[in-house]
Please model this.
Amino acid sequence: MRTLVIGDIHGCATALETILEAARPGRNDVLITLGDYVDRGPSSRTVIDTLIALESKTQLKPILGNHEILFLDAMTRRIDPEGWLRVGGKETMLSYAPDHATLSWENVTPAHIEFLTERCLRYFEDETHLYVHANANSVYALRDQSDDWLFWTRFEDAYPHVSGKQMICGHTAQKSGLPLIKPSAICLDTWAYGQGWLTCLDIETGDLIQTNQAGEIRRMTLADLPSAKEPVTDR
Model:
């Protein structure tokens, strides 16, 4: 059994399909996706279709991201939809439009809303690691974390967690295209929707697979990457 973790996808279906072909998660593998499936990239609808299909093929643990929250909040008018459209929502809505032009909530697949609201997780935890979209307050258990920490707080504010477990997260785009590593945390958002890569980490081996929207693949290990120092704190 492997534990595989994929960073922020942001509508990059080609990169996702390529990384799944390379990693080949099986029924005995745990596959954790760190959220931000929608917005900015061109194929949010296809990304969610792919995740739903994975539920029958592997042990999928899909974590909710802040862009899924924006999507759902815009749909229910908890926030101004126009504001969401300006931060990547337009690309999401176009991915649902049959003519790739008309924006309408009626085009959004009901099964996708059910997946995001009923089956996506706030976090996931195993014996050695904490898996969250954005970050976690270092002094609280995951069940006691606020939405602000789990979905919105940037990686710069990551500190060693009281559990002693290493945190794996996304959210803070690393425009170098490489994961950022601290002794207590790893950020796997490697700017898939921009000029970066989509990243998959094998937790047990430290092996990394990266793919992009051009269908390119590159491989490395955590040991190949520089480590960032932990921030100095009196906490």
